[in-house]
Design brief:
This protein folds into two domains: about 180 residues, P-loop containing nucleotide triphosphate hydrolases (Rossmann fold); about 60 residues, Wheat Germ Agglutinin (Isolectin 2), domain 1. It is built from five helices and eleven strands. A hairpin with a 5-residue loop joins strand 3 and strand 4. The N terminus is likely disordered. One of its GO terms (cellular component) is cytosol. It catalyses: thymidine + ATP = dTMP + ADP + H(+). GO terms for molecular function: ATP binding; thymidine kinase activity.
Length: about 230
């Protein structure tokens, strides 16, 4: 098997992990079938990717083994990067990638996989979210997904909507992001040539830096609806 199986592959029979015990628990001491799908969401600049890398670090230092995946990272490369300078290599989730095959192929090679860290999960396909749920339910793999909830039009991303529907735990990241007015920032405005735009492709790579040709700015609902980027924005 390869890592790039099709996203609509048939349901796979669950093989026994090399480290799995017939009863009681796995090698890491956790009871079997106790895995969960968790979705952590928030606006841009709230530290989602930083939290994803911290989660991976915490699990790895306790002897657990996992994979880090991403899709359309700001670096445009197969890695998770953060605005505070952290970076970690990752597997790019292309449309054809089947997350179940990604895990089972590694296990077939004798590599234990206990968890997945899925950064930029809002940009994944709905099929990938279904695969996350199956990895939890049928393969006893913990899945930690991190991503935006809404796009620049304030509409839910399809994958985010499915994560809200399927996840065992949904949590908003508690790092507060502020609008220029001091209110809580809720919505991601796309800014082109100094103006808030509300039409265009759902996913366009940009950053929050003011020097970016296409940038994003987190606004409160009031100023998002008004298209007001604050003093000196023009």
């Amino acid at each position: 098997m390869t890592d790039h199986a099709t996203a609509d592959s048939p349901r796979l029979a669950r093989p026994r992990r090399p480290d799995e015990q017939p009863a009681g628990g796995g090698a890491d001491g956790r009871p079997l079938h106790a895995a969960a799908l968790r979705f952590y969401w928030g606006p841009m600049d709230c530290g989602k990717s930083t939290m994803a890398l911290q989660m991976n670090h915490n699990h790895a230092r306790q002897g657990r083994r996992g994979l880090v995946t991403t899709r359309i990272d700001r670096s445009l490369g197969p890695q998770v990067t953060t605005r505070i300078g952290l970076a970690h290599e990752a597997i790019e989730v292309i449309d054809e990638l089947d997350l179940r095959v990604l895990v089972t192929s590694r296990r077939a090679e004798g590599v234990r996989i206990d968890y997945l860290i899925c950064d930029e999960a809002s940009f994944y396909q709905i099929a990938h979210v279904e695969q996350m749920a199956e990895l939890v339910d049928s393969y006893d793999v913990d899945v930690y997904a991190f991503g935006l909830a809404t796009d620049f039009r304030s509409r839910l991303f399809p994958a985010a909507r499915r994560l809200f529907e399927l996840a065992d735990t949904v949590a908003r990241i508690q790092v507060e992001v502020l609008c220029w007015c001091g209110r809580e920032g809720l919505l991601n405005a796309r800014v082109v040539n100094g103006q808030v735009v509300r039409e265009g492709a759902q996913v366009v790579v940009g950053d929050t830096a003011y020097t970016a040709q296409v940038r994003y700015q987190v606004l409160c609902r009031r100023h998002y609806r008004a298209g007001d980027l604050g003093p000196g924005s023009g």
